[in-house]
Amino acid sequence: MVHPVLDSLTNEVIERSKKHRSAYLARVNEAANKGPHRLTLGCGNLAHGFAACPASEKDDLAAGAKANIGIITSYNDMLSAHEPYKDFPQLIKEAAREAGGVAQVAGGVPAMCDGVTQGQPGMDLSLFSRDVIAMSTAVGLSHNMFDAAMMLGVCDKIVPGLLIGALSFGHLPTIFVPAGPMPSGLPNKEKVRIRQLYAEGKVGRDELLKAESESYHSPGTCTFYGTANSNQMMVEIMGLHLPGGTFINPNTPLRDELTKEATRQILKFTEFGNDYRPIGHMIDEKAILNAIVGLLATGGSTNHTMHIVAVARAAGILINWDDFDRLSQIIPQMSKVYPNGSADVNHFQAAGGMGVLIGELISAGLLHEDIITVADQKGLKNYTREPKLIDGKLVWQDAPEKSLDLEVIGSVANPFAKTGGVHVIKGNLGRGVSKISAVEPKHRVVEAPAMVFDDQDDAVAAFKRGELEKDVIVVLRFQGPKSNGMPELHKLSSPLGVLQDRGFKVALVTDGRMSGASGKVPSAIQMCPESAEGGPLTRLKDGDMIHLDTEKGIMNVLVDDNEFNARMSCMMANTEHHYGCGRELFDSFRAGVSSAEEGAINMFNVE
């Protein structure tokens, strides 16, 4: 039985989304009713579409005898998470051929890494790359050659972008294929210790690079629980991955067999079979709320308070931060994976992984079990199983009923916290979000004077000069999507962590983002309205006392309301972040982007 709060909220979301969802489904159904779109192409169109195929496949595609899978890939060999995808298209093509189908690479999408661009000019393109990926996905699928789609992507903006793009072709059955995390390297806690020593000037660049290289050391996703692995959790809990396949390491026999099985599986759901499962029907209100539940239960990345909103709207579903807040009151934090703990995602997988997590949440009525998935049976209960290779054959077995390591995965009855790991922040400085899952309880309430900056480099310079050696709330303005594309501000994590370790009360308040790896320092981020729209942060002055309670979700500047509201807003005229490294190409994105709470969307109407 579904928890009454989840049930009530689901009905509210269905009701408020009725108009938009109905219009979206009408478009999906209209496209589906046309049958295989490839057969409506003219002879010249079709000839172009299969010119590079073997002769037998040309005959099959021309006759409409077999389903054709379009592969959208984020492969590049500069980024560890995406390098394993180099071999996937060939695996998919061979598996499709054996299963009576055809597969073609429909297109590629850019895959940038916030870990590489962190603190660099390229980071200003990061958030907007999600929308570029969505549009690139649509371009790849726009040839109308395909009866199904397979999405190869892992990291921060890539998966949300692929999802949004796939939903624009909602009549196509779609499956997501993960690459898997790299094996464990240098423990994340040790990596952060070296980073803080470097920030203090106690170790040099050689020591820092050695530690970073031992942490990020091979093909596969980074092993901490940031946005990339939050993506992977989200996709599985919505039923778009094969059960239990999310955190299987790359370049292993099991990983390869899961990729082949994903191919065989998606062919079952096309219009050529009798079990048609288009992604536009799969991603409904219940699936979206399941994604939010998973985010809260695992203390996942705050980036998803934007991405899930954007994905939902692409499917005609309207959610907001108040929905996150209501669910956070009933969803316990059930996992501790760095930065929420010392374990990494490989430890999470060994402790029982997604099967244990999903089983616990279903048993407590905290997930919708009755959703359409890419498993053989439609319900989410299938995701309490995990894949194994036995005598070379892929089989699914029941996952452990309980966690195999209670320091990594807890239970609903005995969670690590009674409420979700992401809280909404409200008060006279606007609305934002805070990730509290990695913040020790003694640091979750801070009252201190503000120091106001408009550039993160200025804040780092102030730290190096010793000007932040005190109780302080660092306020960083003009970091929202309209200002400069909303870069992650992970560069501030080490300096603020050092100050906290020295015994000072510190916090960060910003209309920008923090990395999915942000951890122990309390924060209120993604503040709306943002500074570029004259938000309240523009009226703050150095020395203003700010009270931040991340547990209760309250933040206020302790200045008389009349005095504060009478202050002139400080409007930044600096356009330094609008040029260089390709940033000048994104003027229209900055001008047209919606607020963080509305998903920071550029591509479609959010009304």
Automatic annotation (TrEMBL):
Residues 407-600 form the Dihydroxy-acid/6-phosphogluconate dehydratase C-terminal domain. Its EC number is 4.2.1.12. It catalyses: 6-phospho-D-gluconate = 2-dehydro-3-deoxy-6-phospho-D-gluconate + H2O. It holds the Pfam family ILV_EDD_C. GO terms for cellular component: cytosol. Coiled coil: none annotated. Keywords: 4Fe-4S, Carbohydrate metabolism, Gluconate utilization, Iron, Iron-sulfur, Lyase, Metal-binding. It is an enzyme of class 4 (lyase). Binds 1 [4Fe-4S] cluster. GO terms for biological process: D-gluconate metabolic process; Entner-Doudoroff pathway through 6-phosphogluconate. Pathway: Carbohydrate metabolism; Entner-Doudoroff pathway. The keyword DNA repair does not apply. It comes from the Bacteria. GO terms for molecular function: 4 iron, 4 sulfur cluster binding; metal ion binding; phosphogluconate dehydratase activity. Belongs to the IlvD/Edd family. Catalyzes the dehydration of 6-phospho-D-gluconate to 2-dehydro-3-deoxy-6-phospho-D-gluconate. This is Phosphogluconate dehydratase. The gene is edd.
